Amino acid sequence: MALPAANPLLDFPGLPHFDAVTPAHIAPAVDALLDGARATIDMIERDAGPPTWDSVVAPLMDRLDRLHRAWNAVRNLNAVVNTPALRDAYHANLPKITAFYTDLGQNDALYRKFLALQAAPEFATLSQAAQRMIDNEIRDFRLGGAELDAAKRARFKAVKEELAELGAEFDEHVLDTENAWAHFVDDASALAGIPADVVSQARAAAAAERKPGYKLTLRMPCYLPVMQYAENRALRETMHRGFATIASEVADNPAWDNGPLIDRIVELRGEVASLLGYRNFAEVSLVPKMAQTPAEVLAFLRDLARRARPFAERDYAELAAFARDELGLSDFAAWDLSYAAEKLKARRYAYSEQEIKQYLPEDKVVAGLFRLVETIYGITIREAQAAVWHPSVRFFQVRDGAGALTGEFFFDLYARECKQGGAWMDDAINRRRIDDAVQHPVAYMICNLSPPAEGKPATFTHDEVITLFHEFGHGLHQLLTRVEVPGVSGIQGVEWDAVELPSQFMENYCWEWDVLKDMTAYVGDGPLHGTPLPRTLFDRMLAAKNFQSGMALVRQIEFALFDMLLYADYDPVAHTPWASPQALLDAVRAEVSVVPRPAYDRFIHSFSHIFDGGYAAGYYSYKWAEVLSADAYSLFEAAGVLSPSVGARFLEEILARGGSRSAMESFVAFRGRPPQLDALLRHNGMTLAS
Ligand SMILES: [Zn+2]
Asked: Active-site positions?
């Protein structure tokens, strides 16, 4: 091993040295960390004494923490600066990491030590957090195959490794298609209707390749406004087709077809389930979640669908009639949806997303977000210096009311090339006690928001502001934890279907006048420059908040039902009871959707959440957690949404607790009763008619 001390990935305990890490550092660091972890595991296994927290858990967690931090730094880089060299290094090391965790999950000797610890008198003396952490570990050993015989264990491991590779390949096909796909337009007249800042970015994108005209891409800050505003219907159709066929056999480059990967991933997950003694992968997925059975989730989704569908049908009928009568679109199609919706919204509520965007410059938005959480939780946030991976990335520190450092975070907000799409929060460092000191948590907060255009400050759409608030909610869950036990601090150990509670909770504030008004300043020229958003404009936005909320809700239910049925009932070998995943999607659409889609639509080919991300048989979690977040927010609505006392309680009972107790216990401790559906329906403009 060449000079591990000189390897920036092995320099603990500080922040990751993003300015110094190169792809060449990755393999030696991973090898050194894996060797160290294996040596510690050997030592624990050989220890003949009775297993205790100090002899088993503490040394194991210490090693795993280092490995997790280094690998998460690599994983973060792979997602945000996806260069070919980095991607190669990531792939070369991913199998080693996967194999290590699979071996760990199956380690019979360790499993028995944890079982013995759980049964020992010491267990009762441990904190609730430590007890829960041990219970979780034992559950995860079972789910990791620790109770299997040697032959099944080997097969289980091979399946896990193949799944990890297939997941990475799935995402790359999506990213490669997005990177390769471009539509060049020579003449600005073909871009009529598209906002000026989007047009100027398209011109800059073409110029960067020394080409004339305008380059349009499938990245959100370009794709969405084209679909919403382009008068040119053929252009919308071209873009829609590009987007709807990403990573499919009908895309421009069928080499990146995710179709075969989907069947294989479902098949392998089915094999995981049968090895572990479950009927299907959906059952496995639900073991560590709040929801108990696939049937319970399906009933929840179908109940929501039943309540939402009449609203969705009304939304769609209105939109189609408007498109026909006012826009002359008698053959109303999927590529007209956003365009017609934007026109109808502008007609009915007399404003446009782009008008609002002119009032939401980045500096005001970020300052307003920080002021909000400082008010509610009594914390302070200040910018600080740290090594970053791109010049546009910023770094901040969070301090509590007494001025003590509680956490730090990276902000990487703009969309750019070679950065995976979407928005997410990931942990860089987790909070835990190490002897007399506490290691404070650090988070990555990554978005793909509109970048600054040609020397002007970045301005965000209201939807983008909502995304930012959402990810920041995850970040606060990670950063404001008071748990000192590894594995259950921050977002660790939180049931997956409750993990969206703090994030979706934050979205509500984007609709509060007292919060939003101070986040606005008009950026255009003229007498309005610098003025805040007018109340009248906000009132129109608010009136439009639930515009088409029925359609949006059934769309989410469509994804969630597809996901749950795919992993509960679909057999990818016999192709029953549906001939293919696409046939299942068609059946789900027939059940809940109100919008016709073209035959070439291959949405599921880019549905990374459930094929690479952790949402397999878990996509329902968004709606499940929204019941919790809406109901939690209703207590703020009753007391005043900026109430520091309710904020302190939310911090104490939910954010600070992390995974140290069940999400239901945390919710009831905050709300004083179990969750109810009313607030979710009210927030979506749906009354409790049943
Ligand atoms: Zn989220």
From this structure: 471
